[in-house]
């Protein structure tokens, strides 16, 4: 069994329907579906900037979280495995030179960074690990500019605390960090939490997912925050449809939750959102679902939820092409075009990078072809630069099968 199979066990439908069960040892296998072929982009080219080598060379392995980029063009990210086996934080400069900024030793220091990084003005990085810490439930960590790691919080799964964070953190102007845990304690928070960590590292659980009928369960992605402090996110399961296929939720500054949308509302709706939302200036939310869009078990969707809670499916991958099974979030340009990745593809089975125009037409920017040494199975979204180039990672592929960092140039 390869590492790619292990990583996304953490969002398997079976495990999220029994969130208290032990971590499973298999992921969703990317499958080949017969779907219409989307238009291929003209003029986009891919360059593999870096190929991960894995633990044999103490390099990172299997990046599953989104990159961030600084003004000098350096890229920063995490790998779920690699280093001494428990994952890394890395930097990739514009020349393609990689530097390992930190290797997670496991144990109390944390293991398996599961989200991307957020950076403050002083150059410190913040992130989460899925495992490790004092109770084995994961951590929130800080990595100084000099490469010194501090564990800011260890998740315990007791007293209402969550465990197993998977999504990236967000940070406000006062230095508070916000995030989610995919599971929780055996009581009122067993299906995950939304939490806040202040600059003194004091944690406040803002909301507990208790498994109440109609509420969401198991948030597996990060949050987005508006100017008045409302938080928006997704849950991978839960909602009104039996055990449910997930929700879009809002939490106001007082901790009151509103479920904005339940999946699936119709047979063509999405199922199981696994990525963070983005928000436009009008308050519309955009995201992806890993499945759904054409009945149970289909290839996923891109959706929009307006401020009133009305959802629109913008793209069904199983019927419109463009790839299959998106695990990463979206980015949006000034013209309203959305960009993202899918983890599987109808021909190469290696995933795609795609563009979705406001009118609904989808264009494949790149189809990953792992048998040629290209990356395979991107599980995170893209990050742009000012020239329109797009950067991302693949979880698998490359010469050693441990993943890549790539650039798409228009």
Structure in words:
It is built from three helices and 38 strands. It is 3% helix and 37% strand. A hairpin with a 5-residue loop joins β10 and β11 (125-131). The model is unreliable at 1-37 (pLDDT under 50). The strands form eleven sheets. It has a five-stranded mixed beta sheet, with no helix packed on it. Strands 9, 10, 11, 12 and 13 form a five-stranded antiparallel beta sheet that branches. Strands 2-38-36-35 form a four-stranded antiparallel beta sheet, with no helix packed on it. It is globular, with a radius of gyration of 19 Å. 54% of the residues are buried. It is mostly beta strands and 410 residues long.
Strand-helix topology:
Layout: H1 3-7, H2 13-17, E1 39-40, E2 45-51, E3 60-61, E4 68-69, E5 75-79, E6 81-82, E7 88-92, E8 98-103, E9 111-113, E10 118-119, E11 125-131, E12 139-143, E13 149-154, E14 170-171, E15 177-181, E16 193-197, E17 203-208, E18 216-217, E19 224-225, E20 231-235, E21 237-238, E22 247-251, E23 257-262, E24 270-271, E25 278-279, E26 285-289, E27 291-292, E28 301-305, E29 311-316, H3 317-320, E30 331-332, E31 338-342, E32 352-356, E33 362-367, E34 375-376, E35 383-384, E36 390-394, E37 396-397, E38 404-409
């Amino acid at each position: 069994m390869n590492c790619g199979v292990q990583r996304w066990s953490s969002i398997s439908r079976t495990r999220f329907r029994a969130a208290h069960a032990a971590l499973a040892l298999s992921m969703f296998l990317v499958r080949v579906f017969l779907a219409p072929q989307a238009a291929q982009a003209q003029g986009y080219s891919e360059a593999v900037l870096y190929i991960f080598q894995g633990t044999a060379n103490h390099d990172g392995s299997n990046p599953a979280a989104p990159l961030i980029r600084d003004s000098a063009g350096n890229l920063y990210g995490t790998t779920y495995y690699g280093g001494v086996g428990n994952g890394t934080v890395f930097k990739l400069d514009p020349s393609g030179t990689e530097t390992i900024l930190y290797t997670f030793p496991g144990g109390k220091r944390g293991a398996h960074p599961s989200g991307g990084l957020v950076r403050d003005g002083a150059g410190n990085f913040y992130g989460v690990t899925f495992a490790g810490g004092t109770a084995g439930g994961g951590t929130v960590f800080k990595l100084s500019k000099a490469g010194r790691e501090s564990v800011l919080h260890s998740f315990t799964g007791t007293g209402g605390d969550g465990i197993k964070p998977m999504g990236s953190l967000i940070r406000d102007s006062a230095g508070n960090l916000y995030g989610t845990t995919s599971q929780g304690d055996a009581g009122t928070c067993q299906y995950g939490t939304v939490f806040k960590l202040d600059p003194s590292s004091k944690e406040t659980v803002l909301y507990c997912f208790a498994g109440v009928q109609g509420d969401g369960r198991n948030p597996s992605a990060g949050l987005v925050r508006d100017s008045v402090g409302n938080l928006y996110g997704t849950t991978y399961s839960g909602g009104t449809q039996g055990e449910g296929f997930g929700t879009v939720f809002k939490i106001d500054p007082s901790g009151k939750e509103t479920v904005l949308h339940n999946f699936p509302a119709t047979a063509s709706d999405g199922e199981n959102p696994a990525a963070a939302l983005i928000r436009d200036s009008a308050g519309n939310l955009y995201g992806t679902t890993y499945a759904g869009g054409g009945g149970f078990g289909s290839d996923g969707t891109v959706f929009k939820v307006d401020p009133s809670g009305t959802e629109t499916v913008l793209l069904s991958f199983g019927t419109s092409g463009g790839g299959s099974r998106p695990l990463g979030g979206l980015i949006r340009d000034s013209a309203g075009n959305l960009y993202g990745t899918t983890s599987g593809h109808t021909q190469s089975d290696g995933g795609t990078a795609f563009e979705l125009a406001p009118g609904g037409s989808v264009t494949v920017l790149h189809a990953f072809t792992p048998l040629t040494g290209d990356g395979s199975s991107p599980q995170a979204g893209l990050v742009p630069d000012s020239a329109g180039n797009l950067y991302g990672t693949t979880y698998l592929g490359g010469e050693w099968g441990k993943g890549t960092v790539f650039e798409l140039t228009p």
